[in-house]
Automatic annotation (TrEMBL):
Record organism: Cyclophora tenuis (Marine diatom)
Keywords: Ion channel, Ion transport, Membrane, Transmembrane, Transmembrane helix, Transport
Record's protein name: FUSC family protein
Main location: membrane
Compartment annotation: Membrane
Length: 419
């Protein structure tokens, strides 16, 4: 993947047949996902056994009026991939159930007392509150809030508890709440019990994959351009048939966005690293913009308008374009090292040009200006070359922003630890 500064255009072509050395997308996040699945499965199994004791031990089952299954259900539902996700769901489930239980006991008991005096006023009261909580709860539970799950669960729980209280069975609401709290406690302890994978580590792995995948995609797109190939359209990545290398990388980065953002969101429930992890979301956005700028070139390089195919691009511009591509890759890959990850063995920055990104951008702009000065008019090929060049410049600028964000974040983390 890496090229010495003196490498010629002919020598710079990648060995596309060497599948052993080709970087596979989502390498780090895929590995951490496998660990998450193993830990989660084992902890759910152990949690179910512990929660089932409330049913298997008959004195406990009789004391809790047969509500022990709610502890089992809670364990299965709340133990998620990371301690942060688990904590968020436990808090939501308990608070939603507790609020629903309190309201159900008040309204249901009041309805029962009223119905003994004036039938069916008590039943109408309970039915009206069920209607109101159903409408209001469903409305707010569909909004993007941290408490959406708790609101939804409370909305679903209230009718059952209110109807039980109306039938003078308030114990069901009380013991169901206790069992949910017990199941949540079991889930919380197991989720934080080692071994576990923190949400901050998951977010970090997804960002590292996005950085490496984008660097490889920059190489793939620029090499295709310099070989005189037409770039495939981004809109074709979901069409039938095999995707090319650039599209596979593009798809990997774009599809990992929800997972990165979810991990960043979960990190605020688990550690003091949330501010550091929050910057990963900003970096992820910039990385995707780098990718978008590179892949947007497909708009300008179709329908036979390729500058190289027309023989209208000089060697100096070609070399400057390759140099800028390599420096963009270097910035993205060294950012991975700044985060603390070791690059795969076949990816190295040792042979990249020993210049910084601003210098590479300046050289490229000079080479582009010199090349365009020989054009007599703005043909379609001229427009294609300028557009591709501008997109490459934009990708370089965004890559530099990512590097600066990560470096500043690492420095602030070190300073806070020293303090």
């Amino acid at each position: 993947m890496t090229l010495p500064e003196s490498t010629t255009a002919a020598q710079a072509q990648p060995d596309t047949n060497n599948n052993d050395d080709e970087y596979k997308p989502n390498q780090f996040s895929g590995a951490i996902q496998n660990k998450q699945r193993i830990y989660q499965s084992c902890k759910v199994g152990l949690g179910v056994v512990l929660a089932s004791l409330t049913v298997l031990i008959q004195p406990w089952d009789r004391f809790f009026h047969g509500t022990g299954q709610w502890a089992v259900i809670t364990v299965v539902v709340v133990i998620l991939e990371t301690p942060g996700d688990t904590t968020r769901k436990i808090v939501n489930r308990f608070v939603g159930t507790l609020v629903a239980a309190v309201l159900a006991l008040l309204i249901g008991t009041a309805g029962h007392e009223i119905s003994t005096i004036v039938f069916p006023i008590g039943e109408l009261l309970v039915a009206t509150t069920i209607l109101i909580t159903g409408v209001v709860g469903r409305w707010y539970s569909s909004s993007p809030t941290d408490w959406a799950y708790g609101i939804l669960l409370g909305t679903a729980t209230y009718p059952f508890m209110a109807l039980d209280a109306l039938r003078d069975d308030e114990y069901t609401a009380i013991f169901r709440t206790i069992m949910i709290a017990l199941g949540g406690l079991v889930g919380f302890v197991l989720a934080w019990l080692p071994p576990s994978v923190k949400a901050s580590d998951v977010a970090q792995a997804y960002l590292v994959d996005q950085l490496i995948d984008t660097a490889c995609c920059v190489e793939a797109v620029v090499e295709d351009f310099l070989e005189g190939k037409e770039l495939n359209r981004v809109t074709d990545i979901y069409a039938g048939g095999d995707d090319d290398r650039a599209h596979r990388l593009y798809k990997a980065v774009t599809c990992s966005r929800p997972s990165l953002e979810s991990a960043v969101h979960a990190s605020k429930w688990e550690s003091s690293r949330h501010e550091e992890t929050q910057s990963y979301q900003v970096c992820g956005l910039s990385v995707r913009l780098v990718l978008r700028a590179i892949q947007a070139a497909d708009i300008f390089l179709r329908n036979g308008r390729h500058p190289l195919r027309s023989g209208q691009i000089d060697v100096q511009l070609e070399l400057a374009m390759r140099e800028l591509s390599n420096v963009i890759q270097k910035e993205l890959l060294t950012t991975v090292e700044e985060i603390g990850y070791e690059l795969p063995s076949h990816l190295t920055v040792d042979n990249f040009p020993e210049i910084d990104l601003p210098t590479a951008l300046l050289r490229f702009r000079h080479a582009l200006a010199a090349s365009l000065s020989s054009w007599s008019d703005e043909t379609d090929v001229f427009t294609s070359l300028v557009a591709f060049s501008r997109l490459l410049e934009e990708a370089g600028t965004l890559a530099l922003q990512v590097k600066c964000t990560v470096v500043q974040n690492e420095e602030s983390t070190v300073n806070s630890e020293d303090a």
